[in-house]
Amino acid sequence: MKATDELLKQIKELNIEDFKKQESFDCISIDEYLCSLLTSHNLQPKDIILNLNMERSYTYQILNGRRKPTRNFLLRIAIFISLSLDETQKMLTIAQRPQLYPRNRFDAAIIFSLEHKMSLDETYELLEEIGEEPLN
Question: What pTM, to 2 d.p., does this model score?
């Protein structure tokens, strides 16, 4: 997969006819990205199912590309596997979900949780204490 800078350079250099012929720009699907994250963190789908208390079939449908994950599902995964803020933003972008926005109190709490490597339980408590919706 090409880096974003490389893709941007490629797009700038293409003429309109070549651009129209391009089938893809090395887009990775969210299911491929999630599977690569699981592999890089030595996790199995069962770890997501058990630790995030997710329904088995729903989780497998997401990992097989049959369903798109919700933003909250992705945020729970990010916290569970201790992704950095940049990694989380990348995952949200790939999934075509809104990135975390620090002026939004809920999003700010998630950013705080990611930056301070809080557990899911600690994050749930924080959200409850500040009166935000749970991360379900």
Answer: 0.81
